[in-house]
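pinging the channel bc i need a second pair of eyes. not urgent but kinda urgent?? the chain im working w is below, pasted from the shared doc
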Amino acid sequence: MSYTRLLYHIVFRTKNSLDTIPEKHEKELYAYIMGIANNKKSKLYRIGGVPNHIHMLVDIHPSFPVTDFMKELKCYSSKWLSTKSNFPDFTGWAVSFAAFSYNINDKQTIINYIINQKEHHINVSFEDEYRQLLIENGVDIDERYFLKD
């Protein structure tokens, strides 16, 4: 038996960053995404966001590369959303996402960051937040592809 703890802070957005996740129905989507994570033998510690993007803190099972995990999560949730009348404007997820690995000692800090998303975005745009997260995590930004769908 191998022992792992692969904590990722993942940020992904709606197609064209449109506000297509109604706040009054977001918990339905979050519960569905939690089910996907559980089915992938992964642990979702926290999920939250605003109408145009979602943050997750998730411990992804080592048998799933993060790209495969996100591809399946977006595929399954997109199909589910297309059948739900509570999400009439949802047209899909953007192709890209950001994933940052963290130490277990950072867990509560990331959880608090996710909890405070609504307040955070009163003053900060998604574009500014996303750019800052990339910079803080040492990711080189190629402006040709930044937030392109």
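so The mean pLDDT is 96. and The chain has one domain: 7-136. — does that match what u expected or am i reading it wrong
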